[in-house]
Amino acid sequence: MTSPPLPEWNQTALMMQQALLGVISPNFRLMTLDHNGCEWVMHFVLETDSVEDREEIESAVSDWEGMYDSPVPHYVEIEVCKGPMKKPLQSARWLYLRREPSHWQQID
User: Fold this and answer.
1) C or N terminus of the chain, fewer CB within 10 Å?
2) The model's pTM
3) What Å distances lie between residue 93 and 48, 69, 86, 90, CA to CA?
4) Angle between helices 6-20 and 51-66 in degrees, nearest 10
């Protein structure tokens, strides 16, 4: 399969951002949205593992699903990472990025 057309990308990203309102805690580092040709891929990075944040993610994804008239194929990835993060795929849309010092910044 191919990537969805731009209007579908924009609608899906906006709906996910709406679903995330009030969900993001200081523990969230990154959230991206991508499409692998078959399904939407939602990638979350948390600084520490948190049952509460995982439940909030599940709730946000459920709210996002509820915005559609029919089921939408999707996959949710939750990564826990305190150190430097892997850069998301170039095709991914960054829907949230916590402001923090760059892990690659050189100190003079």
Assistant:
1) C
2) 0.88
3) 23, 23, 15, 8
4) 130
